[in-house]
Amino acid sequence: MTPDLAAFAERLRGPLRERLTGDRPVVLARAPGRLDVFGGIIDYCGGTVCEMPLGQAVRAALQPRDDRVLHLHSTGAEAHGLRASVDVPLDQLLTTAGPREYHDVCAELGADPAAAWARYAAGAWLVLAREGYTDGYAAGADVVIESDVPFGAGVSSSAAIEMAVLTALTAHLGLAIEGRRLARLGQMVENLVVGAPCGLMDQLTVTLGAANALLVIRCQPDDILGPRQLPAGVEVAAINTAVKHSVGGSRYTAARVAAFMAHAVIVAELKRRGAGEEPFGGYLARVPREEYLTSYRELLPIEVSGAEFLESYGGTADRATRVEPETTYRVRAAADHQVLENARTPELLEAFESFSRTREPVYLERAGERMLASHASYRDHVGLGAPEADLMVELAMARGPANGVYGAKITGGGSGGSVAILGDARLPGELAHIAEAYRRRSGLTPEIIRGSSDGALRSGTTALSL
Question: What is the pTM for the complete model shown?
Answer without folding.
Answer: 0.92
